[in-house]
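Lab notebook page, bench 4
Experiment: in silico fold of construct C2
Operator: M.H.
Input chain length: 343 residues
Purpose: comparison with the prior construct
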Amino acid sequence: MHSLLLASAPSAVPVHLVSKAGWPALIERLAPEAARFAKAHGFAARPGQHVVLPDGLGAVSAVLLGVEGASARRRDPFAPGRLAAVLRPIRNDIPSLTQLGLPAELLQSWMQRRQGLILITGPTGSGKSTTVASSLNWINQQLPRHIVTLEDPIEFLFTNDQCMFSQREIRQDSESFASGLRSALRQSPDILFLGEIRDQETAVTALQSAATGHLVISTLHSSSVVETLDRFSHLLKAGTEEALHLLAGQLIGIFSQQLLPRSGGGLFLALEYMQNEAATRRWILENRLTEIQDHLLKSGGASNCSLLQYLVASVQQGYVEADVARSACARPQDFDRAMRGIS
């Protein structure tokens, strides 16, 4: 859910600017609306806590508003003739993998690995952060690990249970994902979470970290397994051939997701996933993405599933309407054929 906040009056709430390149007037005018928004979504008032407004335009990182646990992402802060912001509430409690409708056994098996790369992908607003948080929380409840996170911004705060967390925020604690990752390797981590892989340097460093005995988890803005491999491969092509070998050898799996309107109200999590094994390693190295897509469509195991298969099953089981599922397919005609039982 998103809420559009339009600034109208100066703030009477004390505001502390966190961003180095801040816009005090913007924050002062948005503060009362942001506070009301937070309280309206069940955040109790308590001095010393904060509402986070990440900087989509490089303007403001966060403000302190004295509202407990109120975390919200900020979007375009401008509207014609006046200042505005779009805020999306982020839950403080972390749902379990099962509650999210994820294949828990598969993800848990990936999260128990001692080294390798796991990619959680999807468009903006598809729930990637929640999936990662739920996975890390499961590790925290089950396994003794040192987990270092690099985020932009920090979205979920973890309480140590079986694990010890070291959470860092980009620009506040580290200049970039790549430099933060290099520094994190000196902290003796077992697991590294990168909020996003954005460039070739970060991609190569992540793979090198996986190759040296770390479990690396990260996200990418891509809508399918094949698109993820294509984008990641293009990031690495500016590097060496060794980097492509690292991707084929160190990738554990890719988990792509998107949120669709659920029949009867609410949202439904549509999934596509692939576990990297012998055949897919060879296809990744040779950039044979067509074979990987065919592998997903033909696979009947629990470790691989195409989005098309998932959408057809979701319609047949009454989770989403056929027109919604069809619109989520890259090739709607393939969905029509699959619904008629034509492979």
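Observations: Residues 1-24, 41-76 have pLDDT under 50 and may be disordered. The chain has twelve helices and 14 strands.
Next step: discuss at group meeting.
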